[in-house]
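Collaborator request, handled under Task 6.
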Amino acid sequence: MKFKMLCFDMDGVIFKTDNFWLQLHKALGTYEKGKELTEKYLYHDYARLVKEVMKLWKDKDAEPYWKLVKKMRYTAGTKPAMKKLKDKGYKTAIISSGPYDLAVRAQDDFGINFIFTNRLVIDEKTNKIKGFKWPIGTTDKANALRYVCRMEKVKPKEVISVCDDLNDVEKANISGFGIAFNSGSKELIDACDVHIQKPDLKEILRYC
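Structure tokens returned to the collaborator:
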């Protein structure tokens, strides 16, 4: 089968950080409580996680968020890998529970065709955090891929998924080819066709 699209996770794949939201907890001074909530709810009750985190973040100044979006570093090899994929005619997508604004940055830099992410709600006038829109929890990435495929007119089996976390397992299972990228999740590694352990995104080109 000829693959037509590559679908990327964002944290730990396109960007070096493993969890943008924990980095934001540090920047906003809520890290200890945020880490506790993440460990308690991330894989079991995402709605509760969002509710509790918003109690910590609501009405905080969003400037640390914008600074963090700007300073996040791309994984080694991202620029040449994206260029090569475009040259080969692949469509590209990001499906991530990470922040919309970070995905937009990657979209602008590399011409990503489609992004599907969560979003921090910020009041434009006051620059205060007001809420969180989360179409992607820990069990929604497969449905998100189906949606992206409909929008981009490709089939899930025509997609190569590049992922790194436990919440990518279902997405990897419905994709035509799964690449676990520097993953610490045995479940994901088992669900994927290959596991790349070198932190350089150019390594995926061997399979594209």
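The cover message to the collaborator said: "Residues 21-70 form one domain. The beta strands are 5-8, 91-99, 114-122, 129-133, 159-163, 177-181, 194-196. Please let us know whether this matches your experimental observations."
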